[in-house]
Amino acid sequence: MQLVKHPLLSPAPGTQRELVSLHYGTPGSAAGKAYIQASLHADELPGMLTAHHLRRQLAALEAAGRIVGEIILVPMANPIGLSQHVLHSHLGRFELTTGENFNRHYPDQIEAVATSVESQLGPDPGANVRILRTALRQAIETSPVETELQSLRRTLLQLSCDADIVLDLHCDAEAVVHLYTESPCAEACDPLARFLRSRLTLLAMDSGDNPFDEACSQVWWKWKARFGDRFPIPQACLSVTVELRGATDVTHELASQDAQKIIDFLHWRGLISGAKPALPAPVGDARPLAGSMPIKSPATGVLTFLKPIGTDVKAGDVLAHVIDPITDEVTELLSPVDGLFFARDFLRFATRGMRVAKVAGKEAIRTGKLLGAR
């Protein structure tokens, strides 16, 4: 294993943060490259503990000579957010200087790269992938940055932009295991969902504000659309946001199980040698992100849920009560669709307009930006 430190742009004299990446296997291997990062939202810790178990398993596999691809693990993807504590509360989702979500606004090099390499592309899809990856990596490496946050985004993309598999480990507040990926990645994502025992995969095309996972995968389907029939461009990157349950599901038991499931998937994909593990049966399905319906509270008060996460619900089912402690009025929060009640907030005092839960239906209903929290 090679440990690499990547200095970020210093935000002030005497201050210097760095990103640490762990490298296993052989760069440029024909077996492919996987990139895994944890806690881009720095206060989402299940992925960080999973990375702790992953690095131990990867070290043992490397010592046994079984890593035949290239695997990069970033055990803590956000040193900026890790340091943000206000009045003893950890605020790791938004950068305090700009208010920007650490998982949004990744730079777009799609058109610039396409223009620069168009004359080099031809009928060989494998050669086209290599040409585009080289140009994309160069474009990212030479892109100017002005802030520490921009330098973090650039560094994460430098490490991941040429990977065949990108796994971004997150969690919700309280949730079942679920995944987000782009629709062109759906087929390739299905085995990952099976290994992780994911109840739900949410699919979208360009969900809004360019989150990290889409910045890695969308280049390929957008290049394919741009070049049309002139040059074959495969979907060369499976990039997935992996939601490892809820924020308090930080146990060695769960993390070691999740790490093993990720190893099994990488083994199944051929980055680890040996007899492939059997592909598990699915326990969930894929649904449109536009069918994932946020449940908002129309009132302020004490929030108590009546349904556990992981429940299949019907439109009109009462999911929760919001109780005004002064008037004693009880407001019912209803499911707007038939679907899977897959996530809810861990706060138990709701304010008017607050999103407190999510139900995933099977029909696309929403339009516009599909992700919350700018």
TrEMBL record:
Key words, A-Z: Hydrolase, Metal-binding, Zinc
Succinylglutamate desuccinylase/Aspartoacylase catalytic domain location: 33-112
Gene3D superfamilies listed in its UniProt record: Zn peptidases (3.40.630.10)
Cofactor: Zn(2+)
One matching Pfam family: AstE_AspA_cat
Protein name: Succinylglutamate desuccinylase/aspartoacylase family protein
Organism annotation: Roseateles paludis
